[in-house]
């Protein structure tokens, strides 16, 4: 077990493209850290650099107080779980799990004992003599986990280990991985493109985009206080609503209507010389059915509901607004990544609100909603910076 | 419906039988010839009237054939071993690594495979005489290796490309040196490919006539296909047809054994189950 420290880690490919730029990250001993981002953001490259499967162009990487930049993977004492599981097809489950120990020249009796112990933990005891080809997807995934844990390494590296499983199994395995990691207390770096996985599993989440770390924080920090448009749009499902708005004194003119800014945000905008044109971000839960609202703070807006989705506990209502969708490079990339661009819904500004199940909203009917402005974020459309983030707001 | 299916089956059956007969008829003819007694050799029957081992006994009585058989086996086995070992390493590099001049290397090996061997025989003859390896085992092993390596590299690199790269990464992370990863993970998975290649290379070396006849002059290195051409009858008035037939049958046997022995290994789809589900 060990801490992993990346400082200024950069990866430049031979063709000159930068895959990862200056990543600084301190992963504490026993911590579960998630690297998340859309495809091509450099998360897997970063993981491969930690594993030693890719060279580090610049910067230093240390595992447990030892700089390992030039050490081959076998001397780093780390275990990795691959998206494809990468089980050795010519070896039985027992041999697969014992492979790292066999290479480490551990004596046979110990290997057997450790493999059987790991198999018991992962519920694989009855499959030990089968070949991987005779196992189901979930079982193969567990064998891959088993191969990682038998060795008791300094750290686990996991590269989208669940993305080949079907949705139901993925949720089960997710909790199993979380439980296993807590029990073993081994430092873990986990790569995923699924923000739900990132939010539920990690002690801390690292959001990456185009090889650059956007924000590092606990899931709650990322959700409540995103540093920029990209993080705000990437984290959360359904995603945050983004609207074009114009600042005038303490009022935000937006397609939803005039929204008053609270004092703290207004001061923050003034201090940072914010542009007049901004993007305002509102999470679906910032809206509330005005008829059910507990307190009378915040502006009330009226919209005609297009679509209503009832989930039992909550109701999602969708409505469109005039004025076209908010534009920025980050939002563009998010739309591409989520496939939103392909659905053709990019042309109009759609807003989604999460309302209490008791709402009387109906499709095609207008509804009054109260907006909680304390949950609103104001972004600079050019830089994507969250102008209302407490660090910027002071 | 059933009638249609049956007539379909009958048509295929007839076609298959025809093809098999066409392919095996010359084989049967040579076998029949090899068992004929010299007096009935030219009677034109496809089934010997008088079965005899005389021809087989005859060819094993002289050292001409036995020596050639030893040469053939030795030269083919050594060439195959070297070509497969070198080919495996080269194919692995071609399939896995990015290095400058890779395209050139592949192009060159393709070029070698495309040269008609007959155009190289005369220069090779002179070169080998100057180097003093004319009419030696090594003098045949080198050209066999050269011509079979491109084949080996192509066949094997296709097999290597099918092995998921993740397996190798996994092995490295699990603590294997590159050599261990190759020996314990990649090589066992590539085994079917290695055996296939070995068979192809062995057959090529075993069957070659051109190099064998051009680059040898005595029994020292003459292989069976070349030696057969030097067969003489027991007297100058007798055709060596029976002996040639017997020798031809004898040299077919190792090939059949070789293929039957390795076929089981080739068939196994070993890589299934390596990745995903």
UniProtKB/TrEMBL annotation, chain A:
CDD domains: ABC_MalK_N (cd03301). It comes from the Bacteria. Residues 4-235 form the ABC transporter domain. One of its GO terms (molecular function) is ATP binding. The keyword Transmembrane does not apply. InterPro entries: AAA+_ATPase, ABC_transporter-like_ATP-bd, ABC_transporter-like_CS, ABC_transpr_MalK-like, ABC_transpr_MalK/UgpC-like, Mo/tungstate-bd_C_term_dom, NA-bd_OB-fold, OB_MalK-like. Keywords: ATP-binding, Cell membrane, Membrane, Nucleotide-binding, Translocase, Transport. PANTHER family: MALTODEXTRIN IMPORT ATP-BINDING PROTEIN MSMX (PTHR43875), TREHALOSE IMPORT ATP-BINDING PROTEIN SUGC (PTHR43875:SF15). This is Sn-glycerol-3-phosphate ABC transporter ATP-binding protein UgpC.
From TrEMBL, chain B:
PANTHER family: INNER MEMBRANE ABC TRANSPORTER PERMEASE PROTEIN YCJP (PTHR32243:SF18), MALTOSE TRANSPORT SYSTEM PERMEASE-RELATED (PTHR32243). It is a multi-pass membrane protein. The lineage of its organism: Bacteria, Bacillati, Actinomycetota, Actinomycetes, Kitasatosporales. It comes from the Bacteria. InterPro entries: BP-dep_ABC_trans_perm, MetI-like, MetI-like_sf. This is Carbohydrate ABC transporter permease. Belongs to the binding-protein-dependent transport system permease family. It is found in: Cell membrane. It comes from Streptomyces actuosus. The chain crosses the membrane at residues 12-31, 68-92, 104-125, 137-160, 181-204, 244-262. CDD domains: TM_PBP2. Keywords: Cell membrane, Membrane, Transmembrane, Transmembrane helix, Transport. Residues 69-262 form the ABC transmembrane type-1 domain. PROSITE patterns: ABC_TM1. Its main location: membrane.
